[in-house]
Amino acid sequence: MSTEIVSSEKEIQNTDPRIKLIAAKMKKENYKADALIEILHTAQNAYGYLPMNILKFITKELKLPPSRVYSTVSFYHFFSLKSKGEHTCLVCTGTACYVKGALGLLDEIEHKFSLKPGQVSADNKLGVQVARCIGACGLAPAVVLDDEVHGKLTNEMITDSINAKIK
Amino acid sequence: MQNITIYIDDKKLEVESGKTILEVCRNNNIEILTMCHLEGVLDVGACRLCLVEIEGVNKLLSACTTKVAANMVIRTSTERIKRYQRITTELLFAERNHMCSVCVANGKCELQNLGYKVEMDSIRYPRLFPQCEVDTSHSWYVLDHNRCIMCTRCVRVCSEVEGAFNWSVKNRGYQVRIISDFNTPWGESTTCTSCGKCLHACPTGALWPKAIVQGQLDKKPEIIEELMAKRKMGL
Amino acid sequence: MNRNDLKVISEKAKEKHKKYKHKICVCCGAGCISSGSEGVLLKLQKEIVERGLQNEVEVIPTGCMGPCNQGPLVKYLPENTIYQKVDCENISQIVQSQIVEKKPIEDLLLFSDFHPKPFINAHDDPFFKKQLKIALKDCGDINPEEVEDYLAYDGYLALGKVLFQMSPEDVIAEIKHSRLRGRGGAGFPTGLKWETVYKYVSEEKYVICNGDEGDPGAFMDRSVLEGNPHRVIEGMAIAGYAVGANKGFAYIRGEYPLAIKRFEQAIKQAKKNGLLGNKILGSEFSFDIEVRIGAGAFVCGEETALIASIEGKRGTPKPRPPFPAESGLRGKPTLINNVETFASIVPILNNGGEWYSEIGTPKSAGTKVFALAGKINYSGLIEVPMGTSLREIVFELGGGIQGGGEFKAAQTGGPSGGCIPAKHLDVKMDYESLMSLGSIMGSGGLIVMDEKSDMVDVARYFMEFCMDESCGKCVPCRVGTKMMHDLLQKIYDGKGTSIDLERLEELAIYVKETSLCGLGASAPNPLQSTLRHFREEYESKIEQDID
Ligand SMILES: Cc1cc2nc3c(=O)[nH]c(=O)nc-3n(C[C@H](O)[C@H](O)[C@H](O)COP(=O)(O)O)c2cc1C
Ligand code: SF4
Ligand code: SF4
Ligand code: FES
Ligand code: FES
């Protein structure tokens, strides 16, 4: 098993510039176990999720037990072990958005794109997620499309906005 | 260490400061129910069975993690505490799939024993019947998540005593599970030394050796304490 | 920079502003940005240059002005005229009319879609008139991305005063005198907390700013961090001096990228100007702040879980005692306060503890920021003296119920709080009064519900939240919230029995009293408070099952 890690790691180092970003972050944080979450943020941002070989790479560099890393990753909702899709639509289901019809938006998305929260389309173009309050309650119901907040949405608007993204 | 006076269930005691309420009670033959506590490893206060009432404190505190203080007035077996111990026990039984009659630990199980102690005659809450795996990938041992109560005694023994760090916990809330390495099969672990300490630490039929016959499980949680005591003495 | 330079720079910055005749602020809080205010800002800046007005008119981006629902907002000073829902097409009209012709545009005035006669000076509107901004002061007037702007508003003068004229004991005495209580939820007296940390002897101590703000429905801390980050930094540095810590951490919710960006930028600027780092302002005191980004776990707002998270671990709480004040981050004495608590420190030191203690009610001094959301006309952010009644907040500041519906309940304190029904609309918003109604102040989220809301669903919703967010460490919360959720779902689906209701009530008390941390201990609150005030809704759902 250990040989497998090494070879996959070489592979990524050779082909993937994102790995340099993560390596630089680890160096900056002095390979401290304390900084695990910061480093995971960097990796998650670079890849959109945490590929297993990247997790193994981080684990090895920080000299941490695998179980310590996996348990931390699986605790936090920000970290995902699966690809979330090229474009993401994050529907807020916080209280204010719930009261103002977030579930309607989710129904509409399911109806139009056949995706439920947590699912990614077959072509990996679009992933749908839910969040508990993104702090844009004044604009309820709100969604985050990629990194932009869209507020006061109607069912029609959400379909249009998503289509504009994935086109 | 300095001696202080405390009162437990109306009994006046002279005790060493710096000790936990649990240690003091055990030294004085006052029964405290515990599940996540294991002699020899650090306490986490997770099972909430050892809760006690302390005069002047408006919360119940876990005896295993709270240190005695001068003039503390402690109650360990009020009606309220007994009621809560029973609910905790019922919830533990309802959470996963505990079929004692077909369990390897039947008759040797701390959870079963707890059921008797709190006089649990039925479980009043709906059983959750979660889908749980049984990991038989290790050559000698089995981890059956159906019987696990998430006390994390195995996790602590593995890290604090054996230093192997094979075990940890994944997810959160009611979806927590014990994991080996990267949530990979135990048999593929790169860290497990197959020392078998977790089997002894485990209070239930969740961890057991393949080489046993049903009902003949022999767990010795006390070996952990003995080991740590020896280690402290430099043996 | 040393202390005298500070005064000079502050004066200079003031001079610089004085040379402009007009000032236009464009709200660039997260709310207004998402309705497009950044485009408005760019267009406005361009328009001013094109008309050659750049020496007369100052245009700046600011933090949240309050009425987020009406954004993008553009404020014209000194008249304090606010235009709402501004888009790029309106810009030239605004410049022409407001700057050149000096005539306000009626149709664009704030709240013109609600009032037949909107106010030209926005501060005449009850939304602003009834507010008293202390923690939010300057937020919405200054550019959060420029330290000079903060200095022009007397920024860092309090820190200078503390470092050179006050001992740590003096600072603590002043905070105690102010009777400030922690704004993170529990309302613990801040001065007392500082004193406790101060008294522990240790080489190393830490100050942590809790910006996790996980309550759904709350966005106060976000606005402070985005709108006036230097205020929080200054408060943290003062706290560091008072308790004897040289290192601070700001734990900010990962969902708040703008707050993180502005806060990190502010730290850099402060360091560059000698307002953070080694020997601050030439004194003997050194203090540094690092940002830690949350990763999506509500329980990490709990202080021991937050510490575990800063240490890079699963955010599971630990039993207290020992409290972080004694043994916190890396086992060292640690002071943890909320963002809004830190934002209140500077005004207290500038105006004196006495001044602050006289605002609000006898037991709850000062002001509180609330985030208004739900079925209310003016959703947004307000700051009012403690003790303001719920009725005033909803019907005067908040402009009443959206869509002309009827007020049914207000939810405060999020998943740890409760509902206040219509018959208690006159309740004074302070720690004790809310507690006596079975709710809590919490961090300040206030969600208004109208007659269409189903209170069993509300309870179910919050229980689901707690169930999902439980860390899973202790039995009562891990299993209890799941059980309570399932029972609530059953009742909501019309399949519950009176026995289920009985079990639910018993579990609620049990989980509350036995859980390890505050998440479990307060998870039953929404359930218990809806049962207390709206029991008939539960009963109507189970009636048919009673044989
Ligand atoms: C589950 C849970 C979540 C919490 N979330 C927050 C939070 O998001 N922000 C916050 O400031 N305090 C939060 N608190 C309260 C903190 O534990 C702590 O009391 C507070 O930060 C202390 O600051 P203060 O004294 O200034 O209020 C939370 C507590 C619990 C139990
Ligand atoms: S496997 Fe056994 S020791 Fe480990 S957590 Fe489960 S019940 Fe406890
Ligand atoms: S009360 Fe809930 S969140 Fe808190 S320690 Fe227990 S399981 Fe974790
Ligand atoms: S033995 Fe103390 S909480 Fe489990
Ligand atoms: S974000 Fe602009 S008013 Fe709140």
What does this structure look like?
The complex is a heterotrimer of chains A (167), B (235) and C (547). Chain A is of the alpha+beta class. Chain A folds into two domains: 2-75, no CATH class; 87-166, Glutaredoxin (3-Layer(aba) Sandwich). Chain A is built from eight helices and four strands. Chain A has a four-stranded mixed β-sheet with strand order 2-1-3-4, covered by helices on one side. In chain A, strand 3 (143-145) and strand 4 (148-150) form a beta hairpin. The longest helix of chain A has 14 residues, at 2-15. Chain A is elongated. Residues 1-7 of chain A have low confidence and may be disordered. Chain B is of the alpha+beta class. In chain B, 24% of the residues lie in helices and 16% in strands. Chain B has helices at 21-27, 79-95, 110-117, 153-161, 197-201, 222-232, and strands spanning 3-8, 11-16, 51-54, 61-62, 73-75, 134-135, 141-144, 167-170, 177-180, 207-209. In chain B, strands 2-1-5-3-4 form a five-stranded mixed β-sheet, with helices on one face. The longest helix of chain B has 17 residues, at 79-95. Chain C is built from 22 helices and 13 strands. Chain C has four domains: 20-129, Glutaredoxin; 147-356, NADH-ubiquinone oxidoreductase 51kDa subunit (Rossmann fold, 3-Layer(aba) Sandwich), CATH 3.40.50; 364-450, Roll (Ubiquitin-like (UB roll)); 455-541, Up-down Bundle (de novo design (two linked rop proteins)). In chain C, 59% of the residues are buried. In chain C, a hairpin with a 5-residue loop joins strand 11 and strand 12. Chain C starts with a helix and ends in a 5-residue tail after the last helix. Chain C is an alpha/beta fold and 547 residues long. In chain C, helix 8 packs across helix 11 (229-243), helix 10 (220-227) runs parallel beside helix 12 (257-272) and helix 20 packs antiparallel against helix 22. Classes of the chains: A alpha+beta (167), B alpha+beta (235), C alpha/beta (547). Chains in contact: A-B, A-C, B-C. Chains A and C meet through helix 3, helix 5, helix 6 and strand 4 of A and helix 2, strand 9, strand 13 and helix 18 of C. The site of one iron/sulfur cluster has 14 residues of chain C, from helix 19 and helix 21.
